[in-house]
Write a structure and sequence with these properties.
87 residues; mainly alpha; 0% strand; rod-shaped
Length: 87
Amino acid sequence: MDLIKDFWALVGAIIGGIFWLARLEGRVNGNSKELARLERQIHDDRAEARANRAEQNEILREMNRDIKILLGRGQQVHWNDRTQPPR
């Protein structure tokens, strides 16, 4: 009984430390899961942005072709009052 009286603070600190370590491990595991979820989200967002950029680039290429065609028509075809421009 004297042994418990002499070392009760040390035993309490050890037990408290064990509980603290268990809580810390739980937090680490939760943060690891959250980090993995965020990495997947970033990967998905990057893939979506890549697809959107490809679609926008295709639209810009089409617009560029259309503009070149329209500019080219202005040099090649001269409309007068008897002809109709293409619609």
